[in-house]
Amino acid sequence: MMDVDMQEGSESVPLLDIALRQSLDSRDSMDSSEGKIYDLRAIGPVYDDKDGGRPVEAAESCENDEYKSVEVDEEDAFAKDPFVPFNELPEEENWVLTFRAVFIGLCCGAIVNASNVYLGLKSGWTFGANLFGAIAGFAIIKSFSTMFAENFPILGGAFGPRENNIVQTAAMASGGLSNVFVSAYPALYQLGLMNTPEEDFWRIVSLTAVGGYFGFFFATPLRKFFIIYVARELRLVFPSASATALTIRSMHDAVRGASIGKMKMKAMGIAFSSAMIIRVVSQYALGILWEWHFFWWFHVWGHYRTVAIAVENWGWFVQFTPAFIGSGMLVGLNVSISFFAGSVIAWGIIGPLLVHYEVAFGKLRQPEEYGVVNFASFSPPFSSKETPSPRYWLLWPGVLAMITISFTELLLQWRIIFFAFKAASKGVGKGIYKLGSKLGKDFSFLRKATEQETRDLVEDPAEDTELPQMWMWGPGLIVTIIAMCIVMSVQYEMPLGMSLLSIFLAFFFSFLAIQCTGVTDITPLTAASKASQIILGGATKGEHWTIEHSQRLNLLGGALANMGANQSTDLTADFRTGFLLRTPPIQQWLAQGVGTLVAVFVAPVMFRLFMKAYPCIIRMDDECPFTYPSVAAWRAVAIAVTDPTFPIPPSSAYFSVAFAVFGSFMVLLKQYAWRGKLEWMKAYHPNMMCIALAFVLPQTYYGTAMVIGALISHFWQKKKPKHYETFGYAIAAGFIAGEGIGGVINAVFQVVGIDGDKYGSTIACPISC
Predict the structure, then answer these.
(1) How far, in Å, CA of 636 to CA of 630, rounded?
(2) How far apart are CA 539 and CA 531, in angstroms?
(3) Whole-prediction pTM value?
(4) Pairing relationship of beta strands 318-319 and 373-374 according to DSSP bridges
(5) Which of 4, 5, 24 lies closest to 681 in space, CA to CA?
(6) How far is the C-alpha of 740 from the C-alpha of 296, rounded, in Å?
(7) What are phi and psi of 494, to 5 degrees?
(8) What does each C-alpha distance from 640 to 93, 133, 462, 547 come to in angstroms?
């Protein structure tokens, strides 16, 4: 997932910003803040529904005191206590787990899942399905409820916020598990540790199933713990989940919601269709519709030929990628400029200096007379410490910095983590006390130690009959753990001890990831995955296994921790949304189970499709439309902790340590230096994680596209804040999902032989296009 640091400074104070303020206030009160400044755009649209369902232009000229008073009441209620469920919700039937809600949610999640495989292989960035599913589900089912009669089978009937929550829940579950398909699995193939995606398809499905359902069953009892038991004590607001709940409530407002919801969906639909069409059509005219190589044009025209081709060789051109223009709109100027600055530092300064002083080397493309050089080659001998390419040399400082920055940010929350484990021990003690009471044992010494202060209590709106019972999830969790050991042993030859260690790491980092997401809205998958790889790398030392076997176990163990942390965090956050909307948890749980089943098959199918369409990803060919930065990071860690020859260029190793120390220092500087009167500096402090990511990603045009999107969003918000609040997220989400689905269609075209490589034009393209 994206690890982002957001920009503040919006002229209006949107309704959903309260969720973020509650989260930030909680960290300040515990003196354990990461010091992050968030912009609501990171988690989705800004909805305060001030327009009464009318066109924004008209609404901006109107002043309606009734609407204002309602908004103030809504804001005040949530701001005063974000741990009380919403009260004024439309009446609905008790059973909201309908076929239409689950089916539409699964479709929305599958779209996001497929899109994430494409975007993750391109850039390493993936996106959640919560708000996309909520908005799209609202528009589609709302139209069903008005188009068909009340008693029309399946499609007809009233539609309320709880059923909308079921749509979003199914979308979130079915949109998950894609992260390992843009990181661990491709790394296994690049290192030659598995056969082919076609031969290994069912092996991949089985491993994904046990990892996904481990997260599903593990998250079930954690609802009571994180959403009810310790939520107020640890201030676990889950900003994105709270934002989703507020969004759903606003769209179902009897006076204003329907019209605004329809406007959002119309904007999202237009953006989605436009992005998908331009991604598909542009492959037939890349140099005109998709990429503008200004410096190549200067070179061909004979102006500044030497300088122009040098700039072109380092990848400095513009790509009109809707997904990353949309990403820039969401994450704001700080993240976008940091990412772009990282590209400038890595591929505009350090890379050319490495080549100039013959520390790194480029590969001359044919024909040689054009002077086109590839500085991003991973093919031999450019992936060795003797003659590295700039990409290989820069890979190591980027990966090490991402790991250390992620751990530094995690450790800055040590107080919250301590309180979480303290609360967990109370929960265990409380359970032992209750069990002892039932068995007639006196465990009174535990009673006082496990008592919870009255002010920390959160009332659960769900009845006991509406909760998933232990007999539902307990056996499932046990069976899943046993199945994990069997799958890892039979299919991957992992010893039982290593399997149990991997499962323990998955437990530990899932718990940690949920807690961190509840406070910061950032899931520390980088820290969880890389820590698992490092621990497993240490466990394989001295076992006298082959390097290949050690690397296989390393990547698979990290993949299990990744899947467990990812899925359990997403599903626990869904329970937070359902808590606010008073959705019966058992119905959410069933939707999550079906959604996880869909994700188990959708993600492997998409992975198999892309590997068949673009085998260059596995072969690490120089000419490949995908740069797979997450794959490179996972592969690098696996090699570093298992290869006894230490394949890192010495100069790169020294710089890696220095850069990692600098990155951690910058995180600490932001945390401790910008306080009091200097608090405003945090909005301008560079995001070191994004800068480090740019070292791993040789495509500079992603940063350029994000800056374009961030500037559009910035000035749009300043010029017409209400207009932006209504349409901003919808358009950005449409761009992201639309390009992702366009990429899936292109992969299908590639397989059937009607792609741009065969029928497209190379006008205005360099030879590398």
Answers:
(1) 10
(2) 12
(3) 0.82
(4) unpaired
(5) 5
(6) 28
(7) -90, 125
(8) 56, 40, 49, 11
- Give the N- to C-terminal CA distance of the chain in Å, as an integer: 29
Ranking 29-33, 63-67, 503-507, 525-529 by mean pLDDT, the lowest is 29-33
DSSP 3-state of 266: helix
Tokens 């959410």, located at residue: 588
Q: How far apart are CA 699 and CA 690, in angstroms?
A: 14
Contact 571, 233 (CB under 8 A): no
Angle at 721 between CA 717 and CA 724, to 5 degrees: 70
φ and ψ at residue 14, rounded to 5 degrees: -75, 160
- Cβ burial of 216 (10 Å; 0-12, 13-18, 19+) is buried
Distance (Å, whole) CA 532 – CA 237: 27
pLDDT band with cut points at 50, 70 and 90 for residue 152: confident
Mean local confidence (pLDDT), 312-326: 91
Interatomic CA distance for residues 535 and 512, integer angstroms: 16
Residues with Cβ within 8 Å of residue 668, at least 6 apart in sequence = 408, 412
Token reading at 222: 């954690």
DSSP 486-498: HHHHHHH---HHH
Q: Identify the bridge partners of residue 761 per DSSP, sorted by sequence position.
A: 285
The Cα 314–Cα 308 span in angstroms is: 10
- The helix (run of H) or strand (run of E) holding residue 440 is none
User: Among all chains, which residue has been given the structure tokens 């292109």?
Assistant: 746
Rounded to whole angstroms, the Cα distance separating 748 from 464 reads 48
Beta bridge partners of residue 363, listed in sequence order? 374
Q: Report the SS3 class of residue 291.
A: strand
